[in-house]
Write a structure and sequence with these properties.
Rossmann fold, 7 strands, about 45% helix, 7-stranded parallel β-sheet, globular, alpha/beta, about 240 residues, 7 helices
């Protein structure tokens, strides 16, 4: 009998790693798909470039032959922080391949097992940039597309007992975030001032939201996006 499992893409670092560890602490079998190897042992890991869909298909076929995948967390993404006039078609193609194409493939691979079990949980990590942010043409477009897919899947799969929800993280203090937002930098300070809670979020706080959506008891919640942003999406903080 095959063991049930959860796929989490991009789980070697940051938000994905926090989600993986949270689920493992709950006794779940988690499979990490990432282009980079984790710094420490994390269970089953497959090193794969998610933009190379032929390679991804082979990995997914292998996983689904050995596991009953009933939960998928599409977390991995590429970000191009560029003004619009510097953004290229190649940037867009890569963004579509990783941020949307890989998400579609992971869900499609798991769907037969979810259908048979009459149970499934899909969580897509979007971004607060779906509400708009300068220099994020490709990222905002693809994450907006992911949100659209989430809502569509929620409608299509509802009668099968499969839910699909999204999380929109605001500024979360991951390794990658710190590289692009060094302490004391004017842009970092400006970003911090835009958060009503006056701090950046943690990967564990996003993982907590993901755990809620993935829980068996969250069976009547589907097609939603939960902003984990410290109130950043609410509006302008009073001076």
């Amino acid at each position: 009998m095959k063991k049930t499992a959860t796929i989490v893409t991009g789980a070697s670092n940051g938000i994905g790693r926090a989600i993986m560890k949270r689920l493992q602490d709950q006794g779940e079998t988690v499979i990490n798909l990432d282009i980079k190897a984790p710094k420490e042992e994390c269970g089953e890991f497959h090193q794969v470039d998610l933009s190379r869909h032929k390679d991804l298909r082979a990995v997914l076929d292998d996983i689904c032959a050995r596991h009953t995948v009933l939960r998928v967390v599409n977390n991995a993404a590429v970000v191009f922080a560029k003004p619009f006039e510097e953004t290229t078609i190649e940037d867009m193609e890569t963004g579509l391949a990783v941020n949307m194409g890989a998400a579609m493939m992971c869900v499609n691979a798991a769907l037969p097992a979810m259908r048979e079990a009459r149970f499934g949980r899909i969580v897509n990590i979007c971004s607060r940039t779906v509400t708009g942010r300068a220099t994020r043409s490709v990222y905002g477009m693809t994450k907006g597309g992911v949100l659209g897919m989430t809502r569509t899947w929620a409608l299509e799969f509802a009668k099968l007992g499969i839910t699909a929800n999204a999380i929109g993280p605001g500024p979360i203090e991951t390794e990658l975030f710190r590289l692009g937002n060094p302490p004391g930098h004017p842009e970092t300070e400006r970003n911090l001032r835009s958060v009503p809670m006056a701090r950046f979020g943690t990967p564990d706080e996003v993982a907590h939201a993901a755990a809620f959506f993935l829980d068996e008891r969250s069976s009547f919640v589907t097609g939603q996006i939960l902003m984990v942003c410290g109130g950043q999406t609410l509006g302008v903080q009073p001076s």
